[in-house]
Amino acid sequence: GAADADGGQPSAQARAGRKGKQQDAVLELYDQLLVEDNDALELLKADLKLSTGKEGRGGGAGASARAADPTHLLLLQRHFQLRKLRHTVRRHVLMLSHMRDRMATGSTPPAGAADRRAPTAEELSRVYTVVLQHLAEMSALLDAAEDAADIESVDLASLSAKAHRTYYIAASCMSAGKWRHARALLDRTAEHLADADTVVQTLSAQAAAMEDTIADRARLAALTAELAGARCRLRASEMLQTMEAQQPAGLSQDSMAALSLERGAGKYVLDNLDAFVCTALPPSGAHNELTLLPSPLGFETVPCKPLLFDVARNAVTLPDLSVHQKQERRGLFGRIWGR
């Protein structure tokens, strides 16, 4: 497969391809499980018809026994309905993970796929709407006395789906330039996350140990981090749109690219921090007389861990600004001959 030039490690595209194949294999397994669930429900439906006499008399001793007490059939039907809904939700969640990966990397399905486009935020929000419908059906089937842990897990999954759906609707509004709607939806996402955190704090030990609950908590933590980034992107997009709207009509992109930040005479302020004193901003039209630093900066990539940034910050020597601080006269003669 493809590999990076430095260490022969597989590239991000190759890793995404392998992950996509694994997810497709798991989706096929879920499809097989759903077929088995449907077959079991069809058989139970036929047995229930026999037990209630809708198929007429006859059917042997087995049918007579089932007709006497159809309660066990109803319990089995409820069990397989919950099982089918649980498998359906898990399949949709796995499919959503695959769609998010494709949307983040901008990758497209392999040749021969029905849809060659990368998924959009609006498409993800629609799938989350379907997930919410299935979770609502599960909640209606669960018994408060017997399925308390399952109810807690479904409630957390519902809040997680609501938060994700609202987040991707906000992302769709951001792509359309609807900043006000996007901000309101991001705030709503934060409310759903706060509600989910409250549910997490009150989970029972049995519910907290469930596989679906653990996965939902991980997804909620990831969404919390994504929400902070989305708010920053929203603010930056608003500022850029405002700046573009305030540009003079005759100032094209080519003329903007031709401008230089290194105009003006004298030293850069960055190289003259010890002696520079600015009592007031330069007058309008004279901004080129004050040059802060050369541009572009000579940044270089440095391979290091985030912890080393703190070490590097401690090694920075800041300029001595004590000479610019106001010095008060001290002593007897200082107070007499002071101002």
UniProtKB/TrEMBL annotation:
Q: Mind telling me which InterPro entries this protein's record contains?
A: SRP68
Region listing for Disordered, in residue ranges? 1-22
Query: Could you tell me one molecular function GO term of this UniProt entry?
Result: endoplasmic reticulum signal peptide binding
Which terms does the UniProt entry file under GO BP? Answer: SRP-dependent cotranslational protein targeting to membrane
Task: Give the UniProt entry's GO cellular component terms.
Answer: signal recognition particle, endoplasmic reticulum targeting
Which PANTHER family would you find in this protein's record?
A: SIGNAL RECOGNITION PARTICLE 68 KDA PROTEIN (PTHR12860), SIGNAL RECOGNITION PARTICLE SUBUNIT SRP68 (PTHR12860:SF0)
Protein name from the UniProt record = Signal recognition particle subunit SRP68
Organism equals Diacronema lutheri (Unicellular marine alga)
